[in-house]
Design brief:
384 residues, Phosphorylase Kinase, domain 1, Transferase(Phosphotransferase), domain 1, seven-stranded antiparallel beta sheet, 17 strands, globular
Length: 384
């Protein structure tokens, strides 16, 4: 089901609805709020997420190589009928996740004797834009060196489909943790948040080069629970810079179409209406994720597109008190500040936000960030 809507601010919401009640629908917005949102659920995401995607499986005419008998593969891997598919620097062990935009595989690199992950572009309908985004993601992420950002090693093509080879994270996404355990303990949510904000501060200030030009700082634009992982050793990793763009906006038109992409529940209002973006857009999305980690509920539950858009543009989300959740007052106010519709009312810098997060954590916990995360993951793995 498709609707094409032309709008000028403020939006006319009267006809923004899904007549069938089905969540499998898409909208095409024309300027100034132009973005494509198509239904498509990743197997690791909760079913109330509406994301940009269009289901597409990779081609079957892939490079097939016979696995040599003396090939040393860990005991937890399996060959496919004594045949294995080579992708990047290794052979595929299993598919980790799949969506319309991409498919992520776990591979085994026999030379280095380690696992890696390969993200394969999987959207034929948006192949030109997707290919550009893949290239940009690889170039940006490969130049980001931070403990809390996933590391990219290589790029290439597989059956003429672009891929990115990256660090394999043996861990769980925030989506998985929330689904299995419900709201995160406050110290754990704070520890995750501090790691994410540190990564964002680094990304927002780091210089990188694309096409011979130097850019200073990038906006992630897709902060959401699925893109944050906690490893089995308790290290937080920020993933997926596929729709990131420089803070100065100058690269934007060269790496993607003029359509705004992302996951609607976590998009900032300025992303949705086509306004200029800066670090405060990531602050808003981070606030939506922190709200969800603390409450176990989406800040803006998906019912109809019109409802979620209205809610965002009127700051209409349920406060923690209404949900019966008691939090330190400073933490409550911090989340609400991040979620301000008017970006000028959000934090003036991520450094200020980080300072507040660290102070609140120090007030409520005697443990270090590392110990907090390690102990939580150890307990989580024991229970699951």
């Amino acid at each position: 089901m498709h609707h094409r809507i032309s709008s000028n601010k403020p939006f006319d919401y009267s006809h923004l609805h899904n007549d069938t009640g089905d969540t499998n629908f898409s909208f095409l917005f024309e300027s100034p709020c132009e973005f494509i949102i198509q239904s498509g659920l990743n197997e690791n995401e909760s079913p109330d997420n509406l994301r940009l995607s269009s289901a597409q499986q990779p081609g079957s005419d892939l490079e097939i190589t016979t696995v040599k008998k003396d090939f040393d593969i860990p005991s937890d891997t399996q060959s496919l009928n004594s045949m294995s598919i080579r992708l990047g620097s290794g052979i595929i062990v299993k598919k980790i996740s799949a969506s319309g935009n991409s498919h992520v595989y776990k591979i085994w690199n026999a030379d280095l004797e380690l696992f890696r992950a390969v993200k394969l572009c999987g959207d034929s309908n948006l192949m030109h834009d997707a290919t550009n985004r893949f290239g940009t993601e690889a170039k940006i992420a490969a130049q980001l060196r931070h403990t809390n950002i996933i590391e990219v090693y290589n790029t290439g093509r597989w059956n003429n489909t672009p891929f990115i080879e990256m660090e394999f994270i043996d861990g769980h996404s925030i989506v998985q943790l929330l689904k299995s355990s419900g709201p995160l303990p406050v110290p754990v949510a704070l520890a995750v948040s501090i790691s994410v904000v540190r990564a964002l501060i680094y990304a927002h200030h780091n210089a990188f080069r694309i096409g011979g030009k130097t850019y200073r700082g990038i906006i992630h634009r897709d902060i959401k629970p699925h893109n944050i992982m906690v490893s089995s050793s308790g290290v937080v990793k920020l993933l997926d810079f596929g729709i990131a763009r420089p803070c100065d906006n100058s690269l934007y038109n060269t790496v993607a179409s003029d359509k705004i992409v992302g996951t609607i529940q976590y998009l900032s209002p300025e992303q949705m209406d086509g306004s200029d973006l800066d670090f405060r857009s990531d602050t808003y999305s981070f606030g939506a994720v922190l709200y969800e980690m603390l409450s176990g509920k989406a800040t803006f539950p998906l019912s109809t597109l019109s409802n979620i858009v209205k809610s965002k543009f009127s700051n209409a989300y349920l406060k923690f008190k209404v949900l019966g959740i008691k939090l330190p007052k400073q933490l409550e106010e911090m989340v609400y500040t991040c979620l301000e519709y008017d970006k000028t009312l959000r934090y003036a810098s991520l450094e200020l936000l980080l300072e507040k997060l660290e102070n609140i954590f120090a007030d409520i916990s005697s443990k270090t960030l590392d110990d907090t995360l390690r102990n939580f993951i150890k307990d989580y793995l024991h229970k699951n």
